[in-house]
């Protein structure tokens, strides 16, 4: 009888201990990923009254999960068809388009759990991927998209030389399926984006709001690389000039959807075609379409110093590029601490 009582007591203690650990982990996860109260933006409004209060966002709401259905995007000869699609979101005012690779599952998860976490209906994050050469990641992408509903896979083989084709195909999908979206920010899956700062800029920058502009880190008189061993090289017969036209660094750049639509109309007419996505889209196409650049110090060049938490909190940086998953997670955690304690 005594032994039975001891067993019952031990069982109760074990259950209580497990319950306590569960509650602790639940609370820790909630505090780690969710920004603190008293966010950065106070009643920021985007053009037609979209209201974004604080740094607390709620994830885009979708009604159920649709099966992936083939669709053809034949807007231009450079754009490859896309036949793996995402669940359509409610129309966001700002859509952040992240260039990724099918195998970069962890990169995408890191973004979803950090700066892309808990976004409102006014802000959406979507990933553009191509097809890996061996087709090994196809089923992984399918399952990931069913779970997160935030992927566009275009029918372009993943290769740095195909980067421009991949992104133009993805941006064409954005134009067709997100026609009511007001702003598009293109970035990469190794970048940290300061979403509240982006919202402030598209609200307050008059030049950006009233004209056909692209905003980012402006590159002027960039020398063309000729060494064929370099992935950034361009053959002389393709582009004979010694320098590229002014363009914005590809780590992050921002434009109105109307500007993007205007750009893409010149895809079949602007020459030369370059595999360097940022040079072609924000340089060659922009020049052909008569679109101007806005140089913004908050955007990063590929070799810029990585942003600190205080850079983000104090509105000194919009983007930080070439970051590892670990660096992004650490920065995200530090930002929350500095929002409370200050820099």
List the helices and strands and how they pair.
Elements: H1 2-33, E1 44-46, E2 50-52, E3 82-84, E4 94-99, H2 105-113, E5 123-131, H3 138-148, E6 151-157, H4 163-177, E7 183-188, E8 192-193, H5 195-204, H6 206-210, E9 213-219, E10 247-256, H7 257-264, H8 277-289, E11 292-295, H9 309-313, E12 319-320, H10 325-341
Parallel strand pairs: 4-5, 4-7, 5-6, 9-11
Antiparallel strand pairs: 1-2, 3-6, 7-10, 8-12, 9-10
Helix pairs in contact: 4-7, 4-8
Strand order of the largest sheet: 3-6-5-4-7-10-9-11
Low-confidence stretches: 1-8, 23-88
Beta-strand percentage range: 15-25%
Please provide the count of β strands. Answer: 12
| Gyration radius, in Å | 23 Å
Assembly type: single chain
Portion of residues within helices: 25-40%
Order of helices and strands: HEEEEHEHEHEEHHEEHHEHEH
What's the structural domain tally? Answer: 1
Average pLDDT taken over every residue: 79
The CATH class assignment is Alpha Beta
Tell me the structural class: alpha/beta
And the CATH topology?
A: Spore Coat Polysaccharide Biosynthesis Protein SpsA, Chain A
What is the CATH architecture assignment?
Alpha-Beta Complex
Q: Describe the sheet with the most strands.
A: 8 strands, mixed
**Cα separation of the termini:** 63 Å
Tally of contiguous helical segments:
10
The geometry reads as globular
Family: Belongs to the glycosyltransferase 31 family.
Main location: Golgi
Keywords: Glycoprotein, Glycosyltransferase, Golgi apparatus, Membrane, Signal-anchor, Transferase, Transmembrane, Transmembrane helix
Enzyme class: transferase
């Amino acid at each position: 009888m005594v032994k039975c009582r001891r067993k019952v007591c031990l069982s109760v203690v074990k259950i209580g201990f497990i319950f306590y650990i569960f509650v602790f982990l639940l609370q820790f996860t909630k505090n780690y990923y969710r920004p603190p109260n008293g966010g950065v933006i106070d009643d920021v409004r985007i053009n037609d009254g979209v209201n974004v209060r604080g740094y607390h966002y709620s994830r885009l709401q979708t009604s159920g999960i649709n099966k992936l259905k083939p669709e053809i995007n034949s807007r231009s000869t450079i754009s490859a068809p896309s036949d793996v699609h995402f669940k359509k979101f409610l129309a966001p005012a700002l859509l952040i388009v992240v260039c990724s690779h099918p195998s970069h599952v962890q990169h995408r998860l890191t973004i979803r759990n950090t700066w892309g976490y808990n976004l409102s209906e006014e802000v959406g994050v979507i990933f553009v991927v191509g097809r890996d050469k061996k087709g090994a990641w196809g089923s992984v992408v399918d399952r990931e998209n069913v779970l997160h509903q935030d992927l566009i896979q275009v029918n372009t083989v993943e290769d740095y030389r195909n980067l421009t084709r991949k992104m133009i195909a993805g941006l064409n999908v954005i134009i067709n399926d997100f026609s009511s979206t007001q702003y598009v920010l293109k970035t990469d899956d190794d970048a940290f984006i300061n979403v509240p700062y982006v919202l402030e800029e598209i609200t307050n920058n008059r030049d950006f709001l009233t004209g056909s502009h692209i905003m980012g880190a402006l590159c002027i008189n960039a020398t063309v690389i000729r060494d064929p061993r370099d992935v950034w090289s361009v053959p002389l017969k393709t582009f004979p000039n010694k320098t590229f036209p002014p363009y914005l660094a590809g780590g992050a750049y921002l434009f109105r959807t109307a500007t993007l639509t205007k750009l893409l109309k010149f895809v079949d007419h602007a020459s030369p075609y370059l595999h360097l996505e940022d040079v072609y889209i924000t340089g060659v196409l922009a020049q052909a379409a008569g679109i101007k650049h806005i140089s913004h110090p908050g955007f990063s060049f590929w070799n810029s110093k990585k942003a600190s938490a205080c850079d983000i909190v104090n509105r000194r940086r919009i983007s930080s590029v070439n970051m590892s998953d670990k660096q992004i997670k650490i920065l995200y955690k530090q930002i929350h601490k500095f929002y409370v304690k200050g820099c």
